[in-house]
Amino acid sequence: MAYETLGWDIDDGMLMLTLNRPAKMNAFTVQMCDELADAYARASRDDAVKAIVVTGAGKVFCAGMDLSVDGNVFGLDETLPSPTLADMTERLHEPEIERGLRDTGGKVALAMYDCLKPIVGAVNGVAVGIGSTMLLPMDFRLASTSARFGFVFGRIGITMEACSSWFLPRIVGLEQALEWCYRADIFDAEEALAKNLVRSLHPPETLLADAVAFARGLVAGRSAVGIALTRQMLMRNHAARHPIEAHRIESLAVFHAQGGDGSEGVRAFREKRAPDFTSRASAMPPFYPWDAA
Amino acid sequence: MAYETLGWDIDDGMLMLTLNRPAKMNAFTVQMCDELADAYARASRDDAVKAIVVTGAGKVFCAGMDLSVDGNVFGLDETLPSPTLADMTERLHEPEIERGLRDTGGKVALAMYDCLKPIVGAVNGVAVGIGSTMLLPMDFRLASTSARFGFVFGRIGITMEACSSWFLPRIVGLEQALEWCYRADIFDAEEALAKNLVRSLHPPETLLADAVAFARGLVAGRSAVGIALTRQMLMRNHAARHPIEAHRIESLAVFHAQGGDGSEGVRAFREKRAPDFTSRASAMPPFYPWDAA
Amino acid sequence: MAYETLGWDIDDGMLMLTLNRPAKMNAFTVQMCDELADAYARASRDDAVKAIVVTGAGKVFCAGMDLSVDGNVFGLDETLPSPTLADMTERLHEPEIERGLRDTGGKVALAMYDCLKPIVGAVNGVAVGIGSTMLLPMDFRLASTSARFGFVFGRIGITMEACSSWFLPRIVGLEQALEWCYRADIFDAEEALAKNLVRSLHPPETLLADAVAFARGLVAGRSAVGIALTRQMLMRNHAARHPIEAHRIESLAVFHAQGGDGSEGVRAFREKRAPDFTSRASAMPPFYPWDAA
Predict the structure, then answer these.
(1) pTM greater than the 0.95 cutoff
(2) What ipTM was reported for this prediction?
(3) Residue A14 CB contacts under 8 Å (≥ 6 apart), including other chains
(4) Which of A18, B53, C29, C193 is the most buried (most CB within 10 A)?
């Protein structure tokens, strides 16, 4: 799949994924949805990718859904007869539902949730609507001091999307999530930092280099399967009803590692040398994925 | 239903709900439980109500359960033969359980959880026991600098109620929730602010006006169904096991909006004018409620 | 069961549980796993124990898994043929799985989760690997200014354990949990405090006395069953899908208390005297435990 709305560039293990419609302020379209979902899945399979940095071309990160397109701006099929929760449960992958009903931002968010590589946002400017909600399934959000955010859905009479009713309160708390969604206004980088939406602020001129260095530091010298499992275990297990659900997966993960990178890690530790890990995220252990929803 | 323990006053979309037993420091009774549960349901149905501000008459918010009443102070039927979890699951709405076993604070908390309008607390003074736990299902807690709080159940040999074992750790974290419940003491507004129990502190003389202005700012110019869905989506979806549960609801919400307030919102945005939203929370879309527990 | 790796000392209701392999920096072994799991269960049954303080002998808390032991350092059976999630679900208590597959840290964490007494950590020095993750199911972590922490599993090619993929993000947030696990480095007490991993820092020479005084303050004058239920209700109910799950348990807890310590508490309150609570955690009400996973 060749991307028209995205840049895809790998440099020494770091994938730079760039929202690339600068003439349209990188506004989100159905095509960008499909390309982003494809790109995150492709990054999972591609062993050359160790971590992902996401940014926007030009001075904006993403100005939200492109409301200037012809037809249904949400990419939905208005002729669907009164869809129900059962349609979203039992018929999720039928073309009529997949194309006509499913929220496009949500498809991207679920692809990010499933991703096997750490995702670092480099929020280089305005990020509103889907531009803000697509940041939430990332592992980390680094932002330029000139970044702006906004869960502005209420301004146009719609509601939050991209699974943000799940992600946002888990990151900033239920009260702050309610406040930003009711307010539906644009807020600055300082507020985003103070309320823990972003990890750190950076000068515009160093943001990208800082984000790449940060991402590289997370994965350098690490087991690729270990990184992938760490991400998936935290994303999935923390929302479990009971800690025994985590215990089940963790036991399998440690058992699997001791036949591979874990043995090498212990040997290297005893021999006081750097380990030589060889696992590949393209060959995950058989217990993964453990809850294919 | 005429209220004897509550004030109900609507002014330009703002419902002022007042705990109104000032001679008893607004202490909570079985009657107040019934009236509060009724009031939150009524506010959901009444399109004249856009947001709710809750406060106490006089200098106190709520001094807790009224321990001076005759009979069982908890409003329970002591003669019930050894009730079980099955009683609370399978027989929840049978009169014997409904009246004799169900925690009164929990009935109020569940009515607040289900409410379709934002709820802003204006904590004007002492709020202990149920006075503190009834604050937790609110969207926001604004407090007077003279407010006092306390999860004091341990002082009288009982345990936390009003679904606070679910709400409190979600607001302030598990460790702080454990500490306050073990300590069971009264703490001041500064501690409540420092630990994120309240959103902001206000001088006693401006608290009520500040709370009304804040509540009004959340809903002014917004879609009534959009506000109701935003509240319900965040309250319910953030506790889901997997983000796809949020995706299902969000997809239905966006689909539904694009046939109503969403279309008007996009038109108004393109025409650079204020939108004219017409939806009513008394006519919620058919997919709501999506988990009637 | 006599402990060889632990100290067990009760003084006026306070159990001091000491990791006691100082010549090995209190490194964790399969034997220590078994003894810790036994000790937490024993503390639940022993009415002489009101609260638990956990610390390490000497200058270290716990240096992690003992990688110097012979055989499989993780205590696993490498000959198990490709274990699956079904093994961890359906065969959890079969000896082959119990001994050969289950993560040892997770067995300790689940015993702590089930414990009926508050657990206060007195982290007196280095706490890495399982030394850090065994802190997470505690109610509170107090630390010496000289303490050091580290979720270092990635250094040796394995992944987080001891149910920490459930506990850690609930304590410090998903983003911070991801960062520490990817970094896999050692960090100091100041960072642990700033990120809410620990409750407070203490001079090394007063840490233990401070922790005992803090623990004593949590339980002095309290109902033993009330404390046990408070801990279990917060640990279990906060992770529920819907607040009605908390309502069910809370209703049973208040109903049960009003026939025991709750009646005494209300009488004492009316008579303006200190209550005389008589319940024992060795005789929990019949609705406990309510989700035996």
Answers:
(1) yes
(2) 0.97
(3) A49, A50, A51, A52, A53, A212, A215, A216
(4) B53
